[in-house]
Amino acid sequence: MTEPWLDDEQQQTWRAWLDVNAQLFARISRELQAKSGLSLQDYDVLVALTDDQPGSVRMRDLGVKLQWEKSRLSKHLTRMAARGLVARVECHDDRRGAFVELTDEGLAAIRDAAPDHAALVKDVFFDGLSREQVRDLDKICATVLERLNPDDVCGP
């Protein structure tokens, strides 16, 4: 049986990873809120609504994509709908289901926020890395995601 504890190098790397995540998301959240009035969670929802078939996604599919519980998603979408960023539309085929639709205001918000968001991510995350490090990090992320979701196909 393998040792259940992390060795010193693993422990250092794990703690660095946690620290990077905490600081990165705190910084992105602060700047996104300050520049666009969107929370990082708002931005995540809006990105998900503009990714594939822009504008409309089943609520359950959105929850799966964001890895959010149903109650969290419902409460957040209620707040976003009150601000005019999204709308809930009942599914005529399945009375239990609903769609989340991007409103014109939501589309304008994501279009306004995206350039500053991308510039910040590039500045604080990618500009300090070499192309080789970016490729290595992509491979590492794909490997971890594959272990987290063995039934999903990861990467390109």
UniProtKB/TrEMBL annotation:
SMART domains in the cross-refs: HTH_MARR
- Domain of life, source organism: Bacteria
List, alphabetically, the PROSITE patterns matched: HTH_MARR_2 (PS50995)
Which GO terms label this protein's molecular function in UniProt?
A: DNA-binding transcription factor activity
Q: Where is the HTH marR-type domain?
A: 1-146
Q: Which GO terms fall under biological process for this protein?
A: response to stress
Write down what this protein is called. Answer: MarR family transcriptional regulator
